[in-house]
Amino acid sequence: MNLASYTARRAALGLVQVLAVVTLVFLLVQALPGDAAVALAGDNPDPARIAQIRAAMGLDRPVLERFVEWLAGLPRLDFGVSLVSGRPVSEFLFGAIGPTAVLATLTLVLLLPISVMAGVLAALREGSLLDRALTSVSVALHSIPEFALAVVLIAVFGVQLAWLPPTAVGADLLSQPAVLVLPLVVLLARPICSISRLVRAGMVDALASDYVRHARRLGLGETRIRFAHALPNALAPAVQQVARTTDWLLGGVIVVEAVFVIPGLGTVLVDAVAGRDLPVVQGLAVVFAVSTVAVNLVADLVAFRLAPRTEVVA
């Protein structure tokens, strides 16, 4: 199977997955207990006020009709209107996506080279003190939950030593990059551990493979063998882990933004859930679903390219 046909098949599967997730999100939100109109009407709601809110929210219409209308607006980025503020949901998303995108992008940009470098160094010095040290640190960091690590870092470096800002309250992320240091450390800690271990294992297997031994018999340079032949094959399983890490980032960013008070999508989601702002919750769920499918699609294509399949001809 060539790359073009594989891409088309995976893209079609991704579209089906997005439609399934979007449908499930809508149904789950509709199945939530309680009445949003009653919650928004206040402690002593007037029946006329409740009826007015239900009409404004469209809750007096059939569920299928509301679903079709909502689904038709998604390609235009029309996620509906916030029940709390009356603003379009897209304004919330576009206003908060900047900090989240900065955090996620910087995490991935730093994650890949650091993980690959650590994994390759450990593999090239298999069994050495460096290899054992990296393994010990990886296991220790991977066992610490994100929120616990964030609290410890804030207490030590933000409060006791006062080297870095403990939160992002009143700070501009672009003009004050020091605010991002502690959040990035929290987001990078666990993924670096898992990906570097995968790279190490893949590199060790690749260096012990038959094709590497054959390349050495041909007289190829050791540097070329390691980085042009062994490393691409060692990266194939790590690419899939990067995709899973990106999915994990969607949840990790929510925790980090809540702890460090960063005004991103995670903060918007927490506020929307607390305020029972269902259209905002639905819109964020769609964004997360599309991002997850897109990231996994790209990861599958990269893994396919790094480890191409061969057709067996009888």
Automatic annotation (TrEMBL):
<keyword id="KW-1003">Cell membrane</keyword>
<keyword id="KW-0813">Transport</keyword>
<dbReference type="InterPro" id="IPR000515">
    <property type="entry name" value="MetI-like"/>
</dbReference>
<feature type="transmembrane region" description="Helical">
    <location>
        <begin position="280"/>
        <end position="299"/>
    </location>
</feature>
<feature type="transmembrane region" description="Helical">
    <location>
        <begin position="92"/>
        <end position="124"/>
    </location>
</feature>
<dbReference type="Pfam" id="PF00528">
    <property type="entry name" value="BPD_transp_1"/>
</dbReference>
<keyword id="KW-0472">Membrane</keyword>
<protein>
    <submittedName>
        <fullName>Peptide/nickel transport system permease protein</fullName>
    </submittedName>
</protein>
<dbReference type="InterPro" id="IPR035906">
    <property type="entry name" value="MetI-like_sf"/>
</dbReference>
<dbReference type="GO" id="GO:0055085">
    <property type="term" value="P:transmembrane transport"/>
</dbReference>
<feature type="transmembrane region" description="Helical">
    <location>
        <begin position="175"/>
        <end position="193"/>
    </location>
</feature>
<feature type="transmembrane region" description="Helical">
    <location>
        <begin position="248"/>
        <end position="274"/>
    </location>
</feature>
<keyword id="KW-0812">Transmembrane</keyword>
<keyword id="KW-1133">Transmembrane helix</keyword>
<feature type="transmembrane region" description="Helical">
    <location>
        <begin position="144"/>
        <end position="163"/>
    </location>
</feature>
<dbReference type="Pfam" id="PF19300">
    <property type="entry name" value="BPD_transp_1_N"/>
</dbReference>
<dbReference type="InterPro" id="IPR045621">
    <property type="entry name" value="BPD_transp_1_N"/>
</dbReference>
<comment type="similarity">
    <text>Belongs to the binding-protein-dependent transport system permease family.</text>
</comment>
<feature type="domain" description="ABC transmembrane type-1">
    <location>
        <begin position="97"/>
        <end position="299"/>
    </location>
</feature>
<dbReference type="GO" id="GO:0005886">
    <property type="term" value="C:plasma membrane"/>
</dbReference>
